[in-house]
Amino acid sequence: MSEFPVHPVPESFKGAHITADNYAAMYRESIEDPATFWGEMATRFLHWHQPWNEVVSYDFPKGEAAWFSGGKLNVSVNCIDRHLPEKAQQPAIIWEGDDPTDSRIITYAELKDAVCRLANVLKSRGIQRGDRVCIYMPMIPEAAFAMLACTRIGAIHSVVFGGFSPEALKDRILDSSCSVVITADEGLRGGKRVALKRNVDKALDACPDVHSCIVVARTGAEVDWHDTRDVDYSQASAAADSDCEAEVMDAEDPLFILYTSGSTGKPKGVLHTTGGYLLHAASSFHYVFDYRDGEVFWCTADVGWVTGHSYIVYGPLCNGATTMIFEGVPTYPDPGRFWQVIDKHQVNIFYTAPTALRALHAVGDEPVKRTSRSSLRLLGSVGEPINPEAWEWYYRVVGESRCPIVDTWWQTETGGMMITPFPGATPLKPGSASFPFFGVDLALLNEEGAEIEGAGAGYLVIRASWPGQIRTVYGDHQRLIDTYFSTYPGYYFTGDGATRDEDGYYWITGRVDDVLNVSGHRMGTAEVESALVLHDKIAEAAVVGFPHDIKGQGIYCYVTPMQGVTPDDALKAELIALCVEEIGPIAKPDIIQWAPGLPKTRSGKIMRRILRKIAENELDSLGDTSTLADPEVVESLIAERQSH
Ligand code: 6R9
């Protein structure tokens, strides 16, 4: 699969939590007897107010799953109170600001104080268990306080990535009828300010049910203030009680909603619940990162994505770990920032995305080599397939051939890691996510939906429920069934393709549906298309991904102007602006190609397969074009493509 050699388990990991000696037996038990396996894990990793009646029951065709039914717990108690008083003075969060001179340490005692105060502020604004709270924040400790404050009182948080536009924010607030938004005056990334409060103000013009907006002063910028609605975070927190009794929740009570893109329609509100999700995040954090008490863990994701939920906040804090929150970007003020921060805070475990690694690799080794990185023990990758070249650079240059790399495959819908090496058990093949995590029962299906035995390539599916499984699409359970449980009845369909080699290693090949992965950000082609056709000079648009050296995938748009419109660069600029306005800067098209027509079947379906090939410049393998209504369209698109 890859020309690169296999890296054996290093001597320093022979004493890891999971080794070749216990992985196979534990994995087998987790599949053959999930109730016993996860029952023991739940006792080990979580604090329960009341034990459960049944570990698991599920029905894939109905899209139903329940873990630890009847069990009672509270997430903030598990992430904070449980570690007190022993860890009162241990850093829970190390915050590194955008500016390298800006950092802050929050101990577990301070975390409890901040979370309880904010929970009381929420209560004073009428928030009760089950209510939805939108969090639209920069990467500051208050983002984690806000999430945990919700869990303290049983409110359901919906974190919206701070890079989304007011329009995208509004859609998400309305979809889950949030009544409170927690935000900041501005964000700060790479020296640039992001007008978060202004975006919220715009969004809230169309959200009459939001009665409160809690605002953290991050930069101190002047912002518009609505006296009856807006609440100053620091004033309100200072005035609030520092004790807040934790709401006792059922294991299956909703914990959070997180919007993610699918192949059709608007983003879906993925709903996760309390017990199963927390167990999946906590146990995978412990085993996959081989976490040791006292170590500093750094996940560079944003809390607006699932990786930030599970591996900045819930997984680490549930284990009583020290977790980093980084406000900045990898290249500011210079491309050595990641490595300088690792030295500054003595980071032991570092978890990042291939897109960042590719960008930093392109700059060369010097910024890395200027730093020591001697604290590093383990490296991780997540979000998209990592190409073996980037893997090798990460391994050799960043980790000095000393630190294993865990390439972890999972999704917003899975809650936690699903395919991953274990650093003490798995010889590493660069570019392979390797083997299933505990309780993950994988299969590959062929075009007919039959299981592939042994080595082969196919659609990646899951045979049985796992604790962190998505429970529903908020407000639209049928959409859950249609998206994940109908394509291959009896299985959960991931939307990814994969290969299994002769040694049983899995290699994820990427999405097989109309979902793009741009710099690790998930985006539906349909979302970009709907933004483009909002323009009154545009008749039709089709969007596909194409290989991009740094981003992994770029956004390629075929756009058909209305009759009589002469397309020009000014119109292109307007379309790019429209995508940014509707979705956010992450949805900025890389290439807009004018298309007098789009290749369609006689029944009117756009043939994306062909558009993808043209975008990839793979013109020899366009495949069968005989079913096209108008084959000449393809010729003209190719001619136009060649002019780019
Ligand atoms: C955690 C996260 C999910 C999609 C997923 C897949 C891709 C994630 C990957 C990977 C190859 C890895 N993906 N990790 N592909 N190797 N290690 O990223 O969630 O934002 O929902 O994206 O990302 O295509 O289906 P999410």
Automatic annotation (TrEMBL):
Residue span, AMP-dependent synthetase/ligase domain: 85-464
Signal peptide as annotated in the record: none
N6-acetyllysine sites (modified residues): 605
One Pfam family recorded for the sequence: AMP-binding_C
Residues annotated as binding ATP: 383-385, 407-412, 496, 511, 522
CDD domains: ACS
Function: Catalyzes the conversion of acetate into acetyl-CoA (AcCoA), an essential intermediate at the junction of anabolic and catabolic pathways. AcsA undergoes a two-step reaction. In the first half reaction, AcsA combines acetate with ATP to form acetyl-adenylate (AcAMP) intermediate. In the second half reaction, it can then transfer the acetyl group from AcAMP to the sulfhydryl group of CoA, forming the product AcCoA.
Protein name in UniProt: Acetyl-coenzyme A synthetase
Naturally occurring in which organism (per UniProt): Chromatocurvus halotolerans
